[in-house]
Amino acid sequence: MKAEYHAALDWLYSFVDYEAGQRPRDESRYDLRRVKLFLERLGNPHLKARTVHIAGSKGKGSTAAMIFAVLREAGYKTGLYTSPHLIETYERFKIGDHFIGEDEFIVEVQKLKPIVAEINDQARYGELTTFEIMTVLAFDYFANNKVDWQVIEVGLGGRLDATNVVEPNLSIITTINLEHTDVLGDTIKEIASEKAGIIKAGVPVVSAPQGEDATGVIRSTCHKIASPLRVASIEAMTRSSFNGGFQMFNILGRHNIYDIKLPLLGTYQRINCAVAVAALEALIDQGVEGITKETVERGLSRTDWPGRFQVIDRGPLVIVDGAHNPASSMELVNSLDAFLDADMMPHPAVLVIAASADKDVTGMAEVLAPVFDEFVVTRTRHPRGMDVKILGRAFEELGRKVNYTSTTAEALVFASQLAGSEGLVCVTGSLFAVGEALEIRPNRAAG
What we know:
By secondary structure, the protein is α/β, with parallel strands linked by helices. The chain has helices at residues 3-12, 32-41, 60-73, 102-122, 130-144, 181-184, 188-195, 212-224, 269-285, 293-301, 326-339, 361-368, 388-396, 408-419, 431-440, and strands at residues 50-55, 78-81, 93-95, 98-99, 149-153, 170-173, 205-207, 229-231, 241-243, 246-252, 257-262, 310-313, 317-320, 349-353, 374-377, 402-404, 424-428. α1 (3-12) runs parallel beside α4 (102-122), α4 (102-122) packs across α5 and α11 runs parallel beside α12.
């Protein structure tokens, strides 16, 4: 890796990075006027491509990856901007088959540096943050490469997120639940209001099925600004089967019945897939050419989105999944039941878990403790990692014996020894833990 690339990364992370530390609730910390000013200096690159903008509490990255894959299959040069990354920063910026290269990243940083310095020196609207600079970098990278479409995942919330400067062709809101309450609000209504902040006047909206409170907020927002709303249907889906590294089921859309062959094995991906299909059919309704039953099916079958209920080894069976709250933990358990055919759970079943400091680990433990035989608690390298004693106590209070380790690598070695060749190791609790597991043990179970 080039020294210049390391220097570019060091510069990027030298600014305020709310992903690494406490996120403030103070709205003034998220002033989009400085992002707009930055983009104006670059000729507004965010407006150069057609855009799909995606917010939500769960599944927005998976949904983004699916739509990206289908737009590519339909013949469009497509960019994908997501967060956080699993292992390396460059994973956030993708065009077609390729992540941004080191040389491209260096060129972008050298271009942005003087503009960032000027804006921050003036500080008219506060200083730019790491995520804001990353977001502008993504837009400029896509514009320079003349993408036809850009699929943009919201970082946090929606209304005040740095990505919310786009003028989208379609807005999507995936499943909403309680998350980041220190920033977004303490109720589903408050959080839904932040997510609904991406809705633009007259721009079509596709939503996952939501609870009553979230549905009310989204419908009200769409009604006020005349944005057509379509809620993805999940009733007309067949049961999943699993074969050859794929999850297979059928979705009844408005235009077609789709035979889905998805390389994402978590059963929770069914809802994300239904949202993606509804979104793609909304683009068909807008006259976007090339999106057909065939390109939808082929694109979905080629979706690449690692770290979400992914089998990375066998003997023992090792599954990684970025479940980071009680609802996601329950979806992990349901996915294990479906994938392993309910009563075929390998034993010993060993849970490796790390979490960020702001997570509801008591609720997660209540879901996960009854399912596993052994528990290995660890901490990731991430600055917001939770202290192992606090995390472990959540399981000990439920009467479980906890094994403590200081790194993900140590935890994986120890868990594999506990599981033996016939058991199961499941790594979860945060995407950071999953990323470290993938870094340590590259996928040896592909196909």
